[in-house]
Fold this protein.
Amino acid sequence: MQIKSIQKRDGRVVKFELQKITNAIYQAGADIGRLDEKLAENLAKKVSALITKKIKPKIIPTIEIVQDLVEETLSENHQEEITEAYSSYRRHRAEIRKQKERVLNKKEIDEIDKKFDINAVKVLAARYLRKNEKGEITESIKEAFERVAIQTVL
């Protein structure tokens, strides 16, 4: 059975796209100077097979599970340098998510928060997002944009 959906970090379920795994593996290889599209495609197919093997039917895997299986596949196929580049990128993105969560005083960032780099998030939080009397942020970036859009129309 072929995987059809994947659950994003924000809980949304979206269509599974093998090309995204191929692109991630290719980019990890490119980061270490190994540009090999065919290798990335072959490894992505192996990841897909591993997902199918390890995930029970009717269970929708999370992005984290899929990323773990990418790392497992890379390691099992003796791609240590690509595995390290891929892992390093994951750690870097996780740190950025944590920084955004701290700045925005949220447990999870949403699809809108993802669109902004950490510096933009800091500026939005410092200057534009509503805060309570304690100085804690009380609205999301999405809510702030909705507030501004409504005021612009009125």
About this structure: DSSP finds seven helices and two strands in the chain. The longest strand covers residues 5-7.
